[in-house]
Design a protein that fits this description.
The complex is a heterodimer. Chain A has a three-stranded mixed β-sheet with strand order 1-3-2. Chain A has a two-stranded antiparallel sheet with strand order 4-5. Chain A has helices at about 5, 20-30, 35-55, 55-70, 75-95, 95-110, 115-130, 130-135, 150-175, 180-195, 225-245, 250-270, 295-300, 325-350, 350-360, 365-370, 375-400, 410-425, 430-455, 470-485, 495-505; strands at about 195, 205, 220, 320, 320-325. In chain A, helix 18 packs across helix 19 (about 430-455). Chain A has 21 helices and five strands. By secondary structure, chain A is mainly α. Chain B is mostly helical. Chain B is built from 14 helices and four strands. Chain B has a two-stranded antiparallel sheet with strand order 1-4. A two-stranded antiparallel sheet of chain B has the order 2-3. In chain B, helix 4 packs antiparallel against helix 11 and helix 8 (about 190-215) packs across helix 9. The longest helix of chain B has about 30 residues, at about 45-75. The two termini of chain B are about 20 Å apart. The relative contact order of chain B is 0.19. The chains are: A mainly alpha, B mainly alpha. At the A-B interface, helix 12, helix 18 and helix 20 of A face helix 2, helix 7, helix 12 and helix 14 of B.
């Protein structure tokens, strides 16, 4: 296998006259510019008209995308500005006004100097996310995918983004394939469920849940704010316990063993209603209800109601003409948790530990020779990844107010892995985009797409009656396969990982199964 | 691969001293044997019946496990999609059986069943070889986790193909097994269905062993498993050999699909995932890459499953089968990663 540096950039130089595709490409390039442009516009218009007949809004969307495609090719001032203003104006007058606003913001971003993009784009994204509950219900309907996600779906998306960022530490940074990440999710969720519900009703322990749960209610009730770090720490401990015996195995064995652990956790959750006579997990019925988070009456009145006493019963405030709801508060809290996760993930990546992970991923033998303790470093990757999975699981359990064993099936592990792969292994921003998209698809998008297909695509009176959400896992399978075959570095790649995936690395492990013992 | 050749002697020295780990492992095995002996004493004839159930299940597992082991031996790839090829084998068998109008007590029944099996084998073999060409071959130079990830993707796709084809419910296979007892001595009743499963599996396994160990193509397979580059230099068509390996593995999965449908009489789209993992565990238990090891491991797992679900004295029951199988997988990888049959050799046999 070649070293990473030597072959970067030598691909792609193909002689022009070999093969049908290259001949076609060469003859296309040989045409005069005007003819090529005319042909392109013609094809694009034809597609737009065709789509217009299937679904009108889709046709308009195709037309808009065509216009945006040509924006880049126009001389900047005044043509580009005029076209942009034209598109925005047309939408402002006729179509949904939210499209005009979104496009205007996007165009403004591209007019900003390139060197500002580093902070401008994250800032815009953060502001959009923070104010999302205010305009979620006023957004336009995306063709095919349906309406923008509502705020509750937003919480779901953020929780899965957190988990994907956590898994990215294990898979993206350290290069250890973990097929049982759902076990950490489950551990976090059940930690929250044990310590903030009626599950252990023969005990009555209250701590920090002042103002949420009356003190005479049986069961263990601990404030979620204490449970989140506790769940994270407990899950990290589980990660270490799973990691210690298994991390010396080589990559593919490790994958299977983690899968095994994931399945064992699932079976434990399902059959845990009678563990030697003790009801640990309440079996297939799950643990419900789980206490909602809240800051208690004292903090709430002290901050003038800014921190709600109880997330479920809170929120009478009207801000900017928007009645703040329970889901909104969950959403903002999730955003804070996500910001913390992303911050930790980025700092970890650049730390001594993070560079050790990358070194192990690229060449284990060389890393060991440089004095990196393999087992300890890998275990830390596991523990940190597990921590965020646990926090996300605990928070989501509290949001849903329930946890069921069926939520922790193997599919979820692959679902999260699919997010990491689609977004780009190793790149936090890419992983976030991939996770947001897939979580949206899973929660709302697939159902919307299904109903769109079933109503709009038909031959005469024949409609396909496809239950699209039923085939969710197959769709993820297709995404995984297509991404791995055609763009293994993901949509928004990390440059270093892309080079490894294209050129190959010397990834013969130092600890082999035959060396163990 | 090249480094593997020089290490066995070293490994043998380091693993021979009795360590804490091996003492724990041996005591676990001791407990298992104690549990089995107590169960045997409590009900000997029942124990033997359960044992035959385990043998029959183990044989089906063996056919699937051999597919994992063959592919792992040659590519060092865990073919995650293999279990789903097995599932599709069951689906194909169901479709063919209803097309041929197979039903209990008809003339030439077993000839038709064998025909269905051969057809399922051909279909699954071609399917498996196609999967290799599409999903694994382009990634042969990539980091070794890349094809494993595509394998997971393929597995999910195949599962949904089964789902779209036959729907989410159990599809029944005609119940053609004779329900009478083949053997009935000393109070031990063994049904024909188990004997028939054994009668079909054993020849298939023998043919496979002959193919890998005695034929020219088998020699090419073993050579490719040892060193792909060197065998290419020696004039072996490596791509064709790998395709052939996948073809055989798929054919075995197809035959297992029919046998499982015949034995359990139902097929469902998600059976491949569960059974695939069990079969993979069997392959690891026996020493992955080792053909007799896969059969031995599969029979062990089949027996463990049957004992767990069938025995009366302190058996955890079928709810826990999955957890037990995975615990065995983890314990094996921790205590004896080279599997039951000793040294891990990349070539079969």
């Amino acid at each position: 296998m070649a070293q990473v540096e030597t072959h970067v950039g030598t691909r792609g130089e193909i002689p022009e006259q070999i093969g049908f595709r290259n001949k076609l490409r060469a003859s296309w390039r040989g045409l005069p510019k005007e003819q090529r442009w005319a042909a392109t516009i013609g094809i694009q218009l034809a597609i737009a008209i065709l789509l217009w007949f299937v679904d009108r809004s889709l046709g308009y969307a195709a037309l808009t995308i065509t216009a945006i495609y040509w924006l880049r090719r126009l001389p900047p001032l005044p043509w580009r500005l005029a076209l942009e203003a034209g598109i925005v104006l047309v939408y402002a007058v006729t179509g949904p006004r939210s499209v005009a606003i979104v496009l205007a913001i996007a165009f403004a971003l591209f007019w900003a100097p390139k060197e500002w993009h580093g902070w401008l784009i994250p800032l815009t994204a953060t502001l959009t996310a923070v104010f999302y509950p205010f305009f979620a219900d006023r957004m336009f309907t995306i063709p095919v995918f349906g309406a923008f996600p509502d705020v509750a779906t937003g919480v779901y998306m953020i929780v899965f983004i957190m988990m994907a960022v956590g898994l990215n530490i294990v898979v993206g940074y350290a290069g250890l394939l973990d097929l049982g990440y759902v076990a950490f999710y489950a551990t976090g969720a059940y930690t929250a469920a044990w310590f903030a519900s009626l599950q252990f009703s023969h005990r009555s322990i209250h701590f920090g849940a002042v103002g949420l749960i009356p003190p005479n209610v049986p069961g263990i009730h601990i404030s979620l704010w204490l449970l989140l770090p506790l769940a994270g720490a407990f899950t990290a401990l589980c990660g270490i316990l799973i990691g210690l015996p298994t991390l010396r195995l080589r990559g593919d064995y490790l994958a299977i063993v983690t899968l095994g652990f994931g399945e064992i956790v699932y079976v434990l959750a399902r059959n845990g209603d009678n563990m030697f006579g003790f009801n640990l997990t309440n079996g297939p019925n799950g643990i419900t209800p789980i206490d909602a988070p809240g800051w208690g009456n004292h903090l709430s009145s002290w901050t003038g109601g800014f921190l709600p006493a109880n997330y479920l019963t809170c929120c009478k405030a009207v801000v900017f003409g928007h009645h703040v709801q329970s889901a909104d508060v969950f959403f903002w809290t999730a955003l804070v948790l996500l910001a913390f996760t992303v911050f930790c993930s980025l700092r970890l990546r650049d730390s001594r530990l993070g560079r050790a992970w990358v070194a192990i991923r690229e060449d284990e033998t060389a890393a060991a020779a440089m004095g990196i303790p393999l087992m300890r470093t890998k275990t830390w990757a596991y523990a940190s990844g597990a921590f965020f999975g646990g926090v996300a699981g605990a928070y989501y359990a509290s949001f849903k107010s329930a946890t069921f064993p069926g939520d922790f099936f193997f599919n979820i592990s692959v679902f999260i892995l699919c997010m990491v792969i689609l977004g780009g292994m190793g790149n936090v921003w890419g992983v976030m985009v991939g996770a947001a998209f897939l979580a949206y698809l899973n929660q709302e998008g697939l159902a919307n797409t299904g109903s769109w297909i079933n109503t709009n695509i038909h031959v005469g009176s024949w409609h396909p009656n496809i239950d699209v959400p039923l085939y969710a896992s197959g769709i993820y399978g297709v995404i995984i396969l297509v991404v791995m075959l055609f763009r293994p570095e993901g949509l928004i790649p990390s440059r270093r990982r892309a080079a490894e995936l294209h050129e190959g690395v010397h990834d013969t492990p130092l600890y082999d199964v035959t060396h163990a013992g | 691969m090249a480094a593997d050749a020089s290490t066995p002697a070293l490994t043998r020295i380091t693993t021979r001293r009795p360590s804490l780990i091996s003492i724990i492992g041996l005591s676990l095995v001791g407990l298992l044997i104690f549990w089995l002996v107590v169960n045997f004493i409590k009900g000997p004839s029942y124990f033997v019946e359960v044992l035959f159930i385990g043998l029959a299940t183990g044989c089906v597992y063996a056919l699937v496990a051999l597919g994992y082991t063959l592919v792992y031996g040659i590519l060092e790839l865990i073919n995650f999609a293999h279990g789903d090829v097995f599932m599709l084998g069951g689906m194909i068998s169901v479709t063919l059986a209803s097309a041929f109008g197979i039903k209990s007590g008809m003339g030439g029944l077993w000839l038709l069943v064998i025909l269905v099996m051969l057809l399922a084998m051909v279909c699954c073999g071609i399917l498996n070889a196609t999967i290799e060409a599409i999903a694994y071959r382009p990634l042969r130079g990539a980091p070794r986790l890349a094809p494993l990830i595509t394998a997971i993707g393929v597995s999910f796709i195949l599962e949904d193909v089964g789902l779209a084809w036959k729907g989410p419910n159990y599809v029944s296979f005609p119940d053609v097994m004779p329900h009478s007892n083949a053997i009935s001595v000393w109070g031990v009743d063994i049904g024909w269905n188990k004997i028939i499963v054994l009668m079909i599996t054993v020849p298939v396994l023998l043919i496979l062993l002959w193919l890998v160990q005695r034929t020219r193509q088998g020699k090419a397979m073993r050579a490719t498993a040892q060193d792909m580059d060197a065998s290419a230099i020696m004039g072996i068509n490596v791509n064709r050999t790998i395709s052939f390996t996948f073809l055989i593995a798929g054919a075995l999965a197809g035959s297992a699909g029919l046998l499982y449908a015949l034995y359990v009489t139902t097929v469902r789209f998600d059976q491949g995932f569960q059974l695939g993992l069990i079969a993979f565990t069997s392959a690891v238990l026996g020493g992955i890459g080792n053909l007799p090891g896969a059969v031995l491991g599969a029979i062990c797992i089949g027996l463990i499953q049957a004992f767990n679900e069938g025995l009366n004295w302190h058996a955890p029951g079928s709810d826990w089968t999955q957890a037990i199988v995975f615990s065995i997988l983890i314990l094996i990888l921790v205590f004896r990663p080279e599997g039951l049959l000793g040294e891990r050799t990349p070539e079969g046999g």
